[in-house]
Structure formats: structure tokens, C-alpha cells
Amino acid sequence: MNELAIGRRELLVASSLAALAAAPAEAAGVDPNMTIVRLPEQIPWTQLYNFPQGAAEQAPMFSKVGDPGQYFVLIRWHPGYMSAPHWYETDRLCVVVSGTWWVASGEDFAPESAVPAPAGSFVRRVARTPHYDGVRKIDKEPAIIAISGIGPISYHLTDPAKPGWREV
Fold first, then answer.
1. Torsion over CA of 19, 27, 97 and 74, rounded to 10 degrees?
2. Which of 80, 106, 118, 131 could disulfide-link to 137, CB 3.0 to 4.6 Å?
């Protein structure tokens, strides 16, 4: 009889624990001092450098590329525009969030040699190596790229006599 009582007690505890596990947990919410959330409509897009209106925008999400330390920025390229060949002193780690970003390496601008990096792709821009990128005119949507690195950065054009962007 004693063994039967222990069995019932274990069964009662086990079923109570199962019921607790199945119960919905209460949400803790978000403390803005601990977790910062920006919804898409709250992202602070501004025109990118000296690019023409409608070519590309940036949204600094954490720090600024010109400040010392880690930064995180979003870049939105619109169809028909690419950067001119350029380089930075530090690596830049990039993830394509949406659209297709066309990337290429080298000092000579040859947009037909760019390769597609669709949404979900990772691209590492190696420090001090020339590259260029953007979105082809035939693409239907902009590409949004999340970029992180260590600042401050300096943008070095391989041919400073030409603008930092190209219409393609």
C-alpha cells in the first residue's frame, strides 16, 4: 500500500508539472533601457553622402561610421545605381537583408562582372581592398544591406577625380 501511495504522489506531481509547462507564460515586455526596438517605419533613413537623390540612403542604427568603435548601419541601394570603386581601412561585415546586392572587386569599374548577393547573403569587405556594389537597373526592388565594422572609417575612392557613384 505504501508503494501505491508513492506512485500516486509521483503521478500527481508529474501531472502538475506538465500542466505548468503547458500554461502560457506572461510576457515580460521590453524595458527600453535594456532592449531597444525600432520598427521599420522608425528607421532614420537619410541620403547617402554625395549621391544623387533616389540613389542610396543610410540609417545609422548603432553609433556612426565616423566615430571610434563598433558601428552598425543599414544601406539601401535603389535600382540603377552602384558605388564607384573604393576601399576602407578596416573590414566591413555585410548581410543582405532584402533584395539583391550586386558586388564586385577591383579598381576598374565593370558592373557586368558584379555577382549577385541575394537576401540572406554574407559579404566580407576585406580592409584596404578596392570594391564596388549596388543594384542593377533591371532589378525591381532596392537592396537593403546591414553593415558592421570598426570606426572611424574613411572612404577612399580609387579615382578621386570621378564621383563616388555610377548610374548603371
1. -160
2. 80
